[in-house]
Design goal:
Elements (H helix, E strand, L loop, with lengths): L21 H7 L7 H25 L6 H12 L2 H11 L3 H26 L3 H18 L6 H22 L2
Helix pairs in contact: 2-5, 2-7, 3-5, 3-6, 6-7
């Protein structure tokens, strides 16, 4: 029985000139199927890269806040008073570090799920990183002294890097 020929394996037609550039062909091909565990780990790594870029920008640029801290501040700002009192009663002065740890854990879980979903449908890669970036920008928008265009720029760069990394890791 003849085997299926992928786009990358097709020879150039006789007389058609040179074959397509390998990089162009690679962009057109869907990524090969990755194992579920490898796809999840790839999503976590790519999400960590994107988060690391935003945190680096926050450390280097005064007008760009940490998006994790911005999200934590937003959560604290919308939480009902009884929930905040309970958190302080349970965690004392460690309530905000605990909240940050929960946010980071959520990002790990989201990254793993994004990686698994992207292995099946690569279109979710830019959509997933776009949504995460938008959440960070919205959270940072409420802070004082923030240069929102700079926040948006660094977040878009981080999301693009995360998306590119996930795409590469799933190959």
């Amino acid at each position: 029985a003849p085997q299926a020929v992928t786009r990358r394996e097709r020879p150039a037609r006789e007389g058609a000139g040179a074959a397509a550039h390998p990089a162009t062909v690679a962009l057109l091909d869907p990524p090969p199927a990755a194992s579920r565990g490898r796809a999840a780990l790839s999503g976590v790594v790519a999400t960590g890269l994107a988060l690391g870029i935003t945190e680096l920008a926050a450390g280097l640029l005064r007008s760009v806040p940490s998006l994790v801290l911005s999200i934590a501040d937003r959560v604290i700002g919308i939480a009902p008073a009884p929930v905040l009192r309970l958190a302080v009663d349970i965690f004392s002065t460690n309530d905000k570090p605990f909240l940050i740890a929960v946010i980071l854990l959520c990002l790990v879980l989201i990254g793993a799920r994004l990686g698994r979903a992207a292995a099946a449908r690569p279109v979710v890669i830019p959509a997933g990183f776009g949504v995460l970036g938008l959440l960070g920008i919205v959270a940072a928008a409420g802070e004082t002294g923030v240069a929102l265009p700079l926040v948006a720029l660094t977040t878009v760069v981080a999301a693009a890097a995360g998306a590119a990394a996930l795409r590469a890791l799933l190959r």
